[in-house]
Amino acid sequence: GEDVEQSLFLSVREGDSSVINCTYTDSSSTYLYWYKQEPGAGLQLLTYIFSNMDMKQDQRLTVLLNKKDKHLSLRIADTQTGDSAIYFCAESINYSGKLVFGAGTILRVKS
Amino acid sequence: EPEVTQTPSHQVTQMGQEVILRCVPISNHLYFYWYRQILGQKVEFLVSFYNNEISEKSEIFDDQFSVERPDGSNFTLKIRSTKLEDSAMYFCACAGIHNEQFFGPGTRLTVL
After folding, report:
1. What pLDDT digit, counting tens, does each position of A56-72 carry?
2. Longest CA pairwise span in chain A (Å)
3. Which of residues 42-61 of A touch B (CB under 8 A)?
4. N or C: at which end does chain B have fewer Cβ atoms within 10 angstroms?
5. Average of pLDDT values for A31-56?
């Protein structure tokens, strides 16, 4: 079945690193994505990783993928107050273009 | 940078009325999607659309829902007879070659 799970809440201090975790169930996932949603706004694509990769780095963002454990993480280095938002993990199923989303992790950055 | 746009940003309607939600996807993107997010719940897939026809639809997308690309740029979602439980944020998305989906800002639908 298709299911994506995330922890609900993460609080960090400004300047620290944030790590948001996600697990998924469908082994036929081709791509995995991280989206950011600020209050009242749409979903902003942050980054994505192909399922045969282990890691992808994009400026302050590092995505790690453990395909064996079906575990995906997003690390935000030097977290800023502007990073406060809800972060969604999503998987793209092989036979279909649809995205299956997790419930989202609320990231709160304290100054 | 090209963006997906959606109109209206907020739609209030009476139960049983028809609504049409509009989206203008990024040009040259060929795959289109509608998702919805009920307040406090997950973002849920509704329908995918490619080459002027539905590719896949979820259980939510029943006979009350339809999609259309009437003029090659707009992409619409119609709900024929709205129900209270249709109240949600509706997001349009279009996809690039790695299925990276770019979302619009959403339309908040409130059914009274």
Report:
1. 999 999 999 999 999 99
2. 44
3. 42-45, 48, 50
4. N
5. 92
